[in-house]
User: What shape does this take?
Amino acid sequence: MKKSNKQRRAEIKARRLERAAASVAHLREKDVRLPPPDFGFALGCEPADRSVLEQYNNTFGVLPAFYVARPFICRDCGAEELWTAKQQKWWYEVVHGHIDSRAVRCLACRRARCERLRNAPPGANLLREQTDRLRALGDAKPTASAIADVEAALESKWWSLRVVAIQTMARWGGEANLAKLHELMAARPEGGRRYFAWERVAADAARRALMNTERWP
Ligand SMILES: [Zn+2]
Assistant: This one.
């Protein structure tokens, strides 16, 4: 039966992994930086350009003279992968990756990760979820748990969440909430140095929120 391309690719990959494992085992025994005499380019060996590495020398250790293909297990999907000598050369000498850094993810997982990071910085999804939930609380009359949520949000490490809590309080209205918002406005610090203080941000958020609720009651 004729082998499919997929099968053939898998076989080639298995052979390369085997060879790389053998070469890594060999390197473990001897000086990692010196290529063994029988070390052909078939094994995935690339000379290192130390003049380039030295320009970006970010290690106290000895710079490599050669790169050899390294097998590794993808951190995300567990696939057996090979970090080729060429890829290593590119990583260290063109991108100037840290000399101690290693490939940890397969190409597919690397791309998926980049995609995720592009679409959402760390914590952004969680923040958006919390923000939406908190904002929705303003649509209904405040319950005890909703009030507790808003109070907790006012202490959040994310100022944007605190601002939404202030907006929700303004939409709820009521004596206690309005008093609290006026308190925040009164606590606005003066002077340029305090411009980045939370108190200034809170006071402005409270003022805007009150203006908005007055305009659209
Ligand atoms: Zn993977």
Q: What stands out?
A: Residues 74, 76-77, 79, 105-106, 108-109 surround zinc ion (CB under 6 Å). Confidence is low (pLDDT under 50) at residues 35-42. Residues 5-119 form one domain. Strands lie at 45-47, 66-68, 70-73, 80-83.
